[in-house]
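Table S2 (text version). Query chain:
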Amino acid sequence: MINMKTKRFFRFAVLLALSASVSVSVADQASTVVVGEILSGRQSGNLAVFTLSVVRTLKGSANPGDTITVNATVSQSADRDLTGAYGMWFLSNASGQPTLLPVLRGVFDTAYYPLSKTTSPAAITTNSPAVTLDDQIALENGAALASYSTPLQFHLLAAGLLATADSPVTQNVFHFLHSSADPELRFIALARWVRNHGDTSALAEVANNIALTPSLEATFFVVPGVLGRLDSDPVAIGYLGKIAGSSQPDLQRAAATALMHIHTGDTLPYLAQLLGSSDAATREIAMRGLSRFVDNLPIATQGNVLNGKASLQQGPTPYRTAQTDRYSLSTRSLAQASDSEAAFLQFWESWWASMKGQLSP
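Corresponding structure-token output:
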């Protein structure tokens, strides 16, 4: 299993890889993209030189059977033999010498997509030919995911696959994974559909399999989609409420945050339930959601958060009182308040107990 230090690295690095703000991907920068195996090579300190034997070419003029001498700079220093590493490599020839463009900066093992010699993109049936480089990457990573052997390989391949653009081919890849008996692979498909398509049926499947989430590596990839589900659909809110019951802290916080940003009447029973969470961050998020309902703030969106309107009252506030103002966390955090967390929790628990009869859907 991945240790805690490595998990923290992945949480940061994968978020960067999936971020929509990254305008130029490694694939765009690369002049050559190949599947191949290192015949010989070594990393000494932060520098590595290796000879790569090409198996398949996805981009560029290299042919199967060609050998390429590649230079690389690695963030983490090491002294190690690199022979036998097999996967997808992104190379730049800008300096006149093939240079490795790392998929994720860190150790050498995160600089490429670690494929398996026993799988090939032909393992996935598609309804149309692979037209783009993203299509080819999706086929390679999807086929390799079906036979992943380590958490490191799983995380790297999943991150690369989820970063590809939508197309008929990539849709086929995610349906292929969703048909697997392995819940890790099914959840990677769900992560894509919840995040990119706002798919309520995918959200429902996550919710109905919530007992699996604490033990799955793939749960991390579901978090951004759950976090970004910001509409007032009561059915979706019900699934978010169920997901908020996960004992996996990141997923619980993501669902709680989505409910907090929505804060319609349908969210209130779930936010009230989260006041009893064992996670302090989740409890504060729940109180903030109740506060935003009472203060009648709009559902938060990227646009109204950036222009400040997410913090402006949008109409009458029939439930607002001097006491709710005192304990409101609409526009401040607990750290900025003079009362203790216990005092805030006691207030909002009492408030809900007195109001749920008229506010419960």
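Notes on Table S2: The chain has two domains: 4-179, 189-359. The radius of gyration is 24 Å.
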